[in-house]
């Protein structure tokens, strides 16, 4: 099993709609490590670390988000693994 780490920058209506909490819940269900945070430009940035199929599924899920979200784009890139265990919402 290949373990990978990816960042995802999600744009659209993704702040003020519980997007970060939704991401954390979905990532925890998949057993992923990492974090999610709001960015000053109105986007949301996330880091996902885990088995490749689970990270890929999480990135695909980011296109949906919670019901009030309206995702315009999800840009991904490879990244270094997180330094802390678990999945966290950063401020």
UniProtKB/TrEMBL annotation:
Gene3D superfamilies: 3.30.70.100
Domain of life: Bacteria
Taxonomic lineage from the root: Bacteria, Pseudomonadati, Pseudomonadota, Alphaproteobacteria, Rhodobacterales
Swiss-Prot/TrEMBL keywords: Hydrolase
Residue span, Acylphosphatase-like domain: 5-91
PANTHER family tied to this protein: ACYLPHOSPHATASE
Group of enzyme by EC: hydrolase
Organism of this sequence: Pseudooceanicola sediminis
Reaction(s) this enzyme catalyzes, per UniProt: an acyl phosphate + H2O = a carboxylate + phosphate + H(+)
UniProt family annotation: Belongs to the acylphosphatase family.
UniProt keyword annotation of ATP-binding present: no
Signal peptide: none
Protein name, as recorded: acylphosphatase
Active site: 20, 38
